[in-house]
Amino acid sequence: MLIRFNVYGTIMAVQRKNEEWLLFKESETSMRVRIYDVAIPAELPAEVLAQYLADIFHEHACERYSEVEQYKG
Fold it and tell me: What DSSP letter does each residue of 1-18 carry, written as one string?
């Protein structure tokens, strides 16, 4: 399972692998770079990932990008 989010203007992907969540930053060419310094609790349901990312990265919020949303692009 891979879910992509627009995290205050940065496209990130969260992948479920081996009973844990992995976080990646995506480039404009869809290359993914693993983010190791953010741990997402394994028991967190997919439905609350956007809120969790919003809480973790809230300092990146700005007038143009004020929310974390699932990325549809």
Answer: -EEEEEETTEEEEEEEET
